[in-house]
Amino acid sequence: MNEKTMRKSRWQTVIFLLIIIVLTYLSSAITQFNFIDGMATIPEAVGWIFSNLMITQESLGKLPKILEKLNETILMSIAATTLAAVVSLFLGLFGSKTTKINNFLSVFARFIASVSRNIPVVAWSLILLLSFGQNSVTGFLALFVGTVGFLTRAFIESIDEASQSAVEALKATGATYFQIVSKAVIPQCLPQMISWILFMIETNIRNATLVGILTATGIGYTFDVYYKTLNYNAVALVTFCIVIAVLIVDFISNYIRRVIL
Amino acid sequence: MEATYIRRKNDGRINIRSGNKVDQVVRWTLILLTILTIVAFIFFNYAGLDLGSAITETANNLKVMFLEPALSHFNWGEATYQVGVTLGLAFLATIIGAIIAFFLSLMAATNLSNVWVSRIVRVFVAIIRAVPTVLWVLIFAIAAGLGSEAAILGMLFHSIAYLVKAFSEAFEEVDKGIFEALQATGANWWHIVKSGVLPSTFTYLLSWVFLRFEINFGVAVAMGAAAGAGGIGFDLFMASSFYFDLREVGFITYAILIIAFILEGFSTRLKSRYFPATSD
Amino acid sequence: MSLLKVEGLGKSYTSDIKILKNINFEIKAGEFVSIIGPSGAGKSTMLRCMNRMVEFNEGKIIFNNNDVGSLNKKELRKLRTSIGMVFQHYNLVPRLTVIENVLHGRFGYKTTMQGILGRYTEEEKERAFYLLEKLGIHEHAYKRCDQLSGGQQQRVGICRALIQEPKLVLCDEPIASLDPSSSKIIMDHLKSISTEMGITCLVNLHQVEVAQNYSDRIIGLNKGEIVFSGTSSELSEEQINKIYGTETKDLIMA
Fold first, then answer.
1. β-strands C58-63, C32-36: how paired?
2. Per residue in B103-160, pLDDT tens?
3. Which letter, b or e, does each residue of A130-150 get, where b requires 16 or more Cβ atoms within 10 Å of its Cβ?
4. Cα–Cα distance for residue pair B171/B193, rounded to 1 Å
5. Mean pLDDT computed over every residue of chain C
6. Does position C208 have pLDDT exceeding 70, yes or no?
7. Cα(B73)–Cα(C117) distance, integer angstroms
8. For A44-48, A169-173, B107-111, B221-225, which range has the lowest pLDDT when averaged over its residues?
């Protein structure tokens, strides 16, 4: 690196940092965020959390009810993810270069994936809430739509990566499209796909809490009720239960991933 | 004469599966997921659901939303401003998160830190990640008072957790030779980080930060809607749950979609440029 | 009576560049024919035209009294069942067992559903084991294919082609990724396929000596045109120069 390029790269760094600083300043202005105040509230908030968010004997009495709701939420996330995976499998096959049937379906699959992924889950739950009402199906569908978008993109990438060579070999034996897909493509991609599905289940359990607050279902609603009635001990218990549940799911998925990948 | 290398099932038919652990785990995972999905559908709360009319109604709603978007409770300027607020929230959470994550990931990277510090940081990050963002925001909203501070602090947690994982993995991939060479010159830890680790990973780290910004935009919309954090998400919530104004919901959805598409376009280009080998 | 007859075959991807130009040859049943030529001569493309893995633009291919070019989708599938194919990179499904990969060769004879469910008859399975034993890899039948060496994988590939009960086996550079000793094993097996089973072999090769040692007949291809056709003994130094171009000759023969 000579003197000149070094000076140039130093200038680039300075300009880059300036842009970041300006953007940070603009963002602070538009959101009325005060960095110092914000940071100052952290110790205060942590103090508040430790003095108020305590699980007490009384809140433990609510545990069965909370666990029931948590159970509902986890099952909802799994159901949404699994069904979305089935739909995404087909969209993924249509969308991938290796297995596409025709260009129209390929573009169509990618378009569906892109739109359903880029409209946030909150927007879907609010839209669906209008006609489906406050029940599990609304939450389920909101998670389902977002998951289809995400998994389709992930599956397209997995299928693209799977070697084209086995597909060619099976085609040469006179195998049909679905034989090729089920015996050459899926066996190669399945471990990767399962890994994505597990990742989405974990994500969806967290998202389900958010969706639950909006659609008044599952653990999200339970949290919201205690939160609005200022029952912070119960809030603490709900949060604790969610943390444990997510950590357990995380642990199981990591085990499965270690074995299959 | 029966060849001994042919494995048969109990009924005498020839087995063609290897029956190894991988296959079994894959099969059981799939079976379990299927069973849990069926169980979920049995235990769903179907209160007040009329599937037929709900589907036609939703189709109708979607048609109105996407074909006749309009603004009625606020104007274009206001809409742009609110999108700006959401982008601002996402940006601040990302940039502050990135700075904190940078230092934490130096402690989490196994080649830059000692085993125990690295383990403690990782457990800490795992627990932070397990609490949904919306709960962080709501908890901070009571603890620190409602406002952009609560939203940003809440969003900060997941940004940090995500980036620490990405950053520390990037640091761990730095060539060992660089460390040795710098150590041989008598450089201390900070020198190694500054002149060895940072230059070779910087663009990579930046790409991750941008990917997180893309995610945070979606999160900021969600926080506006579910935790009253302001921005376009809050308007979306008001339009759909308060005014029941489908056209406005449509307009806001379009606005979110356009920003999301732009961000996705950027991140796809970044990905193909900086992570050619990895797909996730 | 020829099994395969190619007349005026031509192929181009874009209008100005022709990959294959006016290819004519005939192959009798049971013959072992090698195609040699420099890389980029169109060997792979030509081979793939025979079972329409690549669609050709001009000419006619007659296989077993069928006009290959005019077959519809279903007839094409049927045609492909009687043409086995062996690839340079073996093209196996790495995560599946050897025996499963061999049985993939039966798909052309099955309905879609039978294939998806993996319903193979006992006769098919026993035939698969018989073939594996013949190629000396029966001990590995239940191993995953990615645990085998290259030479072993190629033998699995040959088994997969043979279980189709083909009349013709197309081999695309079958030994290009193998070491010399594995290459010899594979070539010996291919040779015995044609002599013992009477299956016709059409093999792309880039080693001239190997082609001379094993083939009944050699076809030399250069820039999409046939520049030589004859027996091994007819392939003189001069002919080799014609096929490969003079400059590269020293490299090839070294």
1. unpaired
2. 999 999 888 888 899 999 988 888 888 888 888 888 888 877 767 888 888 899 899 9
3. bbbbbbbbbbbbbbbbbbbbb
4. 9
5. 89
6. yes
7. 58
8. A44-48
3-state secondary structure of B8: strand
A68 near B CB under 8 A: no
Last residue of a domain, one of C139, C165, C191: C165
Which residue intervals of B109-227 are DSSP H helices? 115-130, 133-144, 148-172, 176-184, 189-191, 198-227
Residue B280 has pLDDT above 60, yes or no: no
Query: Which phi and psi angles does C222 have, rounded to 5°?
Result: -140, 130
Can you read off the two tokens belonging to residue A120?
Answer: 């946030």
Write down the pLDDT at residue B160: 94
Contacts of B17 in chain C (CB under 8 A): 97, 100
Same domain, C160 and C172: no
If you count residue pairs, one on A and one on C, with CB atoms under 8 Å apart, how many are there?
Answer: 89
Tell me the average pLDDT of chain A: 88
Contact B3 C133 (CB under 8 A): yes
8 A C-beta contact, residue A83 and residue B37: yes
The whole-angstrom separation of Cα B133 and Cα A209 is 9
Q: Domains of chain B, with CATH numbers?
A: 73-274 (1.10.3720.10)
Are C55 and C137 within one domain? no
Domain harbouring C77, CATH code: 3.40.50.300
Q: How many CB atoms lie within 10 A of CB B12?
A: 7
- On the question of pLDDT at A104 being above 60, the answer is yes
Chain A nearest-CA distance from C1, in A, is 25
Q: Does C167 touch chain A (CB under 8 A)?
A: no
pLDDT number for residue A17: 86
Pairing of strands C58-63, C66-67: antiparallel
**pLDDT for res C100:** 92
- The verdict on A170 touching C (C-beta cutoff 8 Å) is yes
pLDDT, position A89: 95
Beta partners for residue C62, in sequence order: C5, C67
Confirm or reject contact between B17 and chain C (CB < 8 A): yes
**Residue B240, pLDDT score:** 85
> Which residue in the block uniquely carries the two structure tokens 């796909």?
A193
pLDDT tens digits for range C50-67: 999 999 888 999 999 989
Residue C128 pLDDT exceeds 90? yes
Residue A155 and residue A87 in contact, taking contact as beta carbons nearer than 8 Å: no
The residue type of C174 is P
C116 touches A at CB < 8 Å: yes
Residues C150 and C172 in one domain: no
pLDDT for residue B83 is more than 50: yes
Could you tell me which residues come within 8 angstroms of residue C100 by beta carbon, excluding any fewer than 6 positions away?
A: A183, B16, B17, C93, C118
Last-in-domain residue among C165, C194, C227:
C165
- Domain containing C187 equals 1-82+166-254
* Residue-wise burial string across A32-71, b where 16 or more C-beta atoms lie within 10 A, e elsewhere: ebeeeebeebeeebeebbeeebebeeebeebeeebeebbb
CA–CA gap between residue A256 and residue A195 (Å, rounded) = 8
In terms of DSSP bridges, do strands C18-28 and C2-12 run parallel, antiparallel, or are they unpaired?
Answer: antiparallel
Distances (CA, A) of B116 to B192, B193, B197: 21, 20, 21
Considering Cα of A139, then A145, then A146, then A148, what sign does the dihedral take?
Answer: positive
Verify that C73 and C177 share a domain, yes or no. Answer: yes
For the whole model, what pTM was predicted? 0.86
Tell me the nearest-neighbour CA distance from A201 into chain B, angstroms.
10
C170 Cα to chain B: minimum distance (Å): 27
Rounded Cα gap, residues B234 and B224, in angstroms? 4
Is residue A236 within 8 Å of A55, Cβ to Cβ? yes
The total number of structural domains in chain C stands at: 2
User: A246 pLDDT exceeds 80?
Assistant: yes
